[in-house]
């Protein structure tokens, strides 16, 4: 559906035009456009006075549609605390699902709006709600390096090992982006360093694929399985060598120093360091010999 005049005026902050349109019979809950309705448009853009006018004219606070699903998620994403508070007074569904982020709490957590996160949680937001893209609020906050929000969510009992979303869990999300402090917090609170989930399979492969040398060292010190299988690249070493932005040779050396198996020479020609290239070739022969010995023993 195309955008209507009321939504366009609400999005642009044109209060006088909004009043004119409503006086001439514009339907306040008309559907269509990027935001789905006028109330969501005003909520996302933070036009508080227009938002109030729309409410006075009967705008449905729980209408589900548009990019952000509902007005509460739109306001939470944009960081408009006053609009969030007003919506909650109108008995909006704090756990309404849908839209780009899945829920209002996920939107606020992802964008680092700490006060809104506190408000939503105090009003009963589900701290562990899962969305296909962003997983949980904890995963979104971890990915974006919002340390304070991570701590708030954990205090509210967020499941630190909750699985879901592109990165599978919060630790993998933080590891992928090199968020060292978040990784340490999650591990201190009992995150499973070897949990299998998400696009990279595990946190070590996520960190290795991103060239996050410090994170790789931290994960290994916390018992990460260097040869864990799964994920986009198969294992951490293949991730370090085969990722588009790689090869990350220092990460590969760390993994080899920690007894990583060289399961393939697919990416060996990308390695421009002759010593590392030779080390990989020798490692591959040793891996093949190990497989042969294992087959003979069985």
Q: What's the number of domains? A: 2
Structure class: mainly alpha
Q: How many helix segments?
A: 17
Strand runs, count: 0
Indicate the proportion of strand residues: under 5%
Instruction: Describe the sheet with the most strands.
Output: none
* CATH homologous superfamily assignment of the largest domain: Ankyrin repeat-containing domain
Shape: elongated
Mean pLDDT: 95
How far the N terminus sits from the C terminus, by CA atoms, comes to: 64 Å
Q: For this structure, what is the CATH class of the largest domain? A: Mainly Alpha
**Percent helix range:** 40-55%
CATH topology category name of the largest domain: Serine Threonine Protein Phosphatase 5, Tetratricopeptide repeat
Using only C-alpha atoms, the radius of gyration works out to 24 Å
| CATH arch. level architecture of the largest domain | Alpha Horseshoe
- Helix and strand succession? HHHHHHHHHHHHHHHHH
Low-confidence stretches: none
């Amino acid at each position: 559906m195309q955008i209507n005049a009321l939504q366009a005026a609400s999005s642009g902050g044109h209060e006088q035009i909004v009043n004119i349109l409503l006086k001439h019979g514009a339907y306040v809950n008309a559907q269509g456009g990027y935001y789905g309705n006028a109330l969501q448009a005003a909520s996302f853009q933070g036009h508080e006075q227009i938002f109030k006018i729309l409410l006075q004219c009967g705008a449905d606070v729980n209408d589900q549609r548009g990019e952000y699903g509902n007005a509460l998620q739109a306001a939470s994403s944009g960081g408009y605390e006053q609009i969030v508070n007003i919506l909650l007074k109108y008995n909006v569904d704090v756990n309404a699902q849908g839209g780009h982020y899945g829920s209002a709490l996920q939107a606020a957590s992802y964008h680092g709006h700490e006060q809104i996160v506190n408000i939503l949680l105090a009003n009963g937001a589900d701290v562990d709600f899962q969305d296909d893209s962003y997983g949980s609020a904890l995963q979104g906050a971890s990915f974006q390096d919002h340390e304070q929000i991570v701590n708030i969510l954990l205090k509210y009992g967020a499941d630190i090992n909750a699985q879901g979303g592109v990165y599978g869990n919060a630790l993998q999300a933080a590891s992928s982006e090199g968020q060292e402090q978040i990784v340490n917090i999650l591990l201190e609170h009992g995150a499973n360093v070897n949990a299998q989930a998400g696009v990279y399979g595990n946190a070590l492969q996520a960190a290795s694929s991103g060239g996050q040398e410090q994170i790789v060292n931290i994960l290994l010190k916390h018992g990460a399985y260097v040869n864990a299988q799964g994920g986009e690249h198969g294992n951490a070493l293949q991730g370090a060598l085969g990722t588009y932005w790689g090869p990350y040779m220092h990460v590969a050396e760390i993994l080899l120093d920690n007894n990583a198996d060289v399961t393939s020479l697919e990416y060996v020609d990308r390695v421009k360091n002759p010593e590392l290239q030779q080390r990989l070739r020798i490692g591959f022969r040793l891996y093949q010999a190990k497989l042969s010995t294992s087959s003979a023993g069985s």
